[in-house]
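Predict structure. Chain length: 233.
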Amino acid sequence: MSEKHYIKLIVFDMAGTTVNENNVVYQTLKLAINKLGHDFMLNDVLLNGGGKEKLQAIRDIMKPAYNSSEALEKDAQLAFSDFLILLKEAYENLTVSTFEGTPALFEYLRKNGVKVALNTGYNSKTALSLLGKLNWSEGLIYDALITADDVDKSRPAPDMILLAMQKCGISNPKEVAKVGDSMVDIEEGKAANCGLTFGVTTGAQTADQLNAADPDFIIDSLLELKDIIAIKD
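Prediction complete.
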């Protein structure tokens, strides 16, 4: 890279970006929705639900199949309730891992004065379950966790990033980067006026889909951030 960018906080999405859980959440969303008689494919779920708070994801995935908003909302609530039960069962025996080099990258960033925040469309219980399986704890591996439970408006609204900034003591959004595997992650970063937005191809959406949200960079690995984010001496 010919130019590096000074950043004080990087807000990372979780599943598909830092945490590899083999799309279990989106597979479970698909199962819960299709139990209502639908036949949505995983690609539909990833395209229309990727990165979103999960009840809103269900609404957006199912919307094309409904003429009535009342019927959509009723079935979305049913699917969401079933999803939470199915996800708990799936998580009991789930093995999760990080994408290659992620813990070392976090350590490198934090040792060099860049705060690391995690944010997610999951609720707090789900997010903490994932982090517990990784033995990741706040203050040791990352600096802040923001979930959909912590804000009034989830992605693409900027609220989670703004809360991460507040928790990490960052006031200038131009010193913040957002990294995620879905268009809604990039839209969230732009809504927060982040200095940089990154789409990473390890998760929900393809490079072409991510490009539709006009990120500053498309990367195939988080390790590429080292070539883009400048570390101040």
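Summary: DSSP finds nine helices and ten strands in the chain.
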